[in-house]
Write a structure and sequence with these properties.
The longest helix is centred in the last third of the chain and has 40 residues. It is globular and about 75 Å long. The protein folds into four domains: about 140 residues, Butyryl-Coa Dehydrogenase, subunit A, domain 1 (Orthogonal Bundle); about 110 residues, Butyryl-CoA Dehydrogenase, subunit A, domain 2 (Beta Barrel); about 170 residues, Butyryl-CoA Dehydrogenase, subunit A, domain 3 (Up-down Bundle); about 100 residues, Four Helix Bundle (Hemerythrin (Met), subunit A), CATH 1.20.120. It is about 60% helix and about 10% strand. The protein is an alpha+beta fold. The protein contains 17 helices and eleven strands. A hairpin with a 2-residue loop joins strand 1 and strand 2.
Amino acid sequence: MNFYSDNESLKFYLNHPEMKKAVTLKEMNFADHGKYADAPANAEEGLEHYDLVMDLVGEISGNVLAPNAESVDQEGPHIENNEVVYAKGTTANHEALRDAGLYGMTLPRQYDGLNLGYVPNVMAAEIISRADAGFANIWGLQECAETVNEFACDELKAKFLSRIRKGDTCSMDLTEPDAGSDLQAVRLKATWDEASNCWRLNGVKRFITNGGAQLHLVLARSEERTTDGRGLSYFLYDKADGGLTVRRLENKMGIHGSPTAELVFKNAPAQIVGDRKLGLIKYVMALMNGARLGVAAQSVGLAEAAYREAKLYASQREQFGKTIDQFPLVQDLLRDMRTKTDASRSLLYETARKVDITKSYEAIMKTRSLTPEERKDMKENSRIADALTPMVKLMAAEWANQTAYDSIQVHGGSGFMREYACERLYRDARILTIYEGTSQLQVVAAVKGIAGGTYLKCIEDYDAQVEAALAAGVENAEEIKKLRAQLQKMIEDYKALEAAAKQMEVCPDRRLTESLAYIVMGYLLLLDSTRCGCFLESCKNLIVMGRGEIAKHSACVMQ
């Protein structure tokens, strides 16, 4: 079983027309070619390399991670002599990916990385999440390596990046008992120790994913007599240096393979990452955006797993003389599950492409000045990425929960039993709308894109691309024209909803965000359909859903 090759959508997005540009920028016009054996000479070679790596991720996910998921869920981690000991299956998962050289794969080649772009990184997260959403957290925390690479000094990068590449695990230690969503309230104290030439950390962190990791990125208060985000800095702590106690592991509803710990730091030595006072304002915010996109990928992967479980069961379960996938109401459930997963994935990779291009420009800026055209392109891609990230985290996480719920419904009473994977998926899904920013916080972030007109500008650009595709004579042109007209009607309905909300001085932020999300994803699926007709059915169904949702939201505002 290969979780990459058995999903044609993944290869479709890996070969999106914009990916050649993304690869060229990531490779800095292929400057590494000739210096390193695996460095590509052109975009085609770069994409071939991406494809090979994803195939390897898919093989390990299908043949190692997925078969281990059930035993990991049952066994879970535990504490032994102040060490977090993974479940046996989790250790096997980690070793398989480590031995395949897949940790730190986005790191530059000078640190023995694969120099992969952000899109394949997100895709690997989706594939792994389909196999085991809990293990995806351990895998995803290699994003810490990106933060170190981007912001730490050369000495720290040389010392720690190669360790992450070899499989040293990571955690980002942000949350405290009194500082959850409000990270400005962080109190863990960092004090400079002149004699030891290091910082000392003292305090408690709570709800820390993979809290027994070897390397920790810790948000701490470095400035005395401060109470807000301007007094916080970011630190890199190595567990081998002592000073950390794992007080307990949380007994969670789901994602049992991912240890969630309460940590106590007592004079723990650490090194500062970047500059003082920028811990929350700059470094954590950069890491959090990546983490939110990671949760979106986790959501899509879990939704894919839930849909496949439901589809397989429905094709085998017989009632009244025929399999239940022949009953219209079950067909409706399966169709909606497929539609929501396709739509979430389309938005996920649109966002990832924009992040990919933005990050590459930022890396290029460290080597030379950007041209005015490049600077304009970077600014535009960054603006879109910032707007789409909270939208995709919101919608993908909410829909993953709904898809997991519907998967149990398709299974009927069997789905309530632990012997079926859909029960575990349902428990694993529940956290997705909570961590790395609740759905409510994603709405708060997304509203900026509404006020600034970013979403409507994106839709205008998508419409122009559909027009160009139609002018070029794409297949299914008549069907695409009909769906485009429906989307344009939805835009008018949305504008009427927005105008009514302003006139009545109400604040339907979530209703506006979700309404726009249907339109954005409708256009993305329509654009995907100009390249592959397999998305037309999901596009058509999403538009039907969206029209109903906008009508519902309008009625609520009017009330």
